[in-house]
Specification:
Length: 337
């Protein structure tokens, strides 16, 4: 009789899925259209929404979503927003729609999404959902003819360090963590049912050129470039302020070490005199002395996030400038012909 494969329990299967790394985020086309519609309707205001779906092995399937109401700084309104989410989940469950939370989506302006608030939201979701993602959509960048949609998650090494709340230089060197190790981008795969694919084929126009193709040929990129440069200059100013904080900290540490050395030399000389007089020496460390109180080191988290933003703006400027040059050379060749 052939050897039968061992039957795994549900708990063993669940544990094996937890250890499987997330490889791809599979989104249905209808979900992407809902996200785009919600973000564009309220642009340039920033909006958020809930992602629903299933976590299957290395694939996170996003099958539905719904928008959050616009939040204001009011406790009563925040409570109403929480009740709204619970009511939406209950209604979806009654009509047999996937109501498992797998993350959230949010809009952004020119890619300026890497903030402390995003990290805190990730950590709050991680308390109940081990593998969750955030879908970022940028309406301003999508106006350039590109679908600016990306899926992000926090790296495991960064979450471990964030829970310890220690972003000192020594701890970062110990964990070998740099500013590029905060977020991980997960590839997005768009999935549609065969019926929807067949229906889209019937709706497809005879001409292969679409409005999105015409948008790519726009020669004017000045507004987009100007906003990117403005945000880049602001980030450079913020990074300069963070560097000044570190310089001020190191100056204080150097000053404190000089004061400690002077105090120790004075105490040792005093102890030599006491020893010569036959008296007991005094301790060489005084915890009550303010010069021995350690100076708290400023967190490097803000500087890491600002550096991420700077890299993002530079990449956007580089990409838009390269495409703009290509279009200008194309128009020059057409005029010459």
């Amino acid at each position: 009789m052939a050897n039968q494969a061992p039957v795994r329990s549900f708990l063993q299967a669940a544990k094996s899925e937890e250890t499987t790394p997330l490889r791809v985020v599979q989104m249905e086309g209808l979900v992407i259209l809902k996200i785009i519609k919600h973000c564009k309707e309220f642009s340039p205001a920033l909006v958020t929404g809930q992602l629903l779906g299933l976590d299957v092995g290395s694939v996170l399937e996003v099958t539905n979503c719904f928008p959050f109401p616009v939040r204001e700084e009011d406790e009563e309104l925040e409570a109403e927003g929480a009740n709204y989410q619970l009511e939406m989940m209950r209604c979806l469950r009654e009509v047999n729609v996937d109501n498992n939370t797998v993350g959230w989506y949010q809009s952004t302006l020119l890619g300026s999404f890497q903030t402390v608030e995003l990290i805190e939201t990730f950590m709050n979701y991680q308390e109940n959902i081990r593998r969750c993602v955030c879908i970022i959509y940028d309406p301003s960048k999508s106006n350039q003819g590109v679908l600016a949609l990306k899926a992000l998650k926090l790296s495991d090494s960064f979450m471990e360090l964030y829970r310890s709340n220690n972003f000192s230089g020594e701890k970062l060197r110990e964990k070998n963590l740099t500013w590029v190790d905060i977020f991980e981008e997960i590839p997005i795969k768009v999935s549609n049912s065969p019926l929807i694919s067949a229906f889209m084929t019937e709706l497809e126009a005879d001409t292969p050129v679409t409005q999105c193709d015409y948008d790519r040929l726009q020669l004017s990129t000045a507004p987009f470039m100007e906003r990117n440069l403005e945000f880049l200059i602001e980030c450079m100013d913020d990074l300069s302020m963070e560097q000044q904080k570190l310089q001020f900290y190191y100056r204080n540490v150097t000053r404190q070490q000089t004061q400690q050395q002077a105090w120790l030399q004075k105490r040792r000389a005093e102890n030599m005199q006491r020893k010569a007089a036959g008296e007991d020496p005094l301790p060489e460390e005084d915890p009550l002395n303010p010069i021995f109180k350690p100076i708290p080191e400023p967190s490097r988290l803000d500087s890491f996030l600002i550096t991420n933003q700077i890299a993002n703006f530079c990449n956007q400027i580089n990409g838009v400038a390269g495409q703009s040059f290509n279009r200008l050379y194309l128009m020059k060749a057409l005029h010459e012909n």
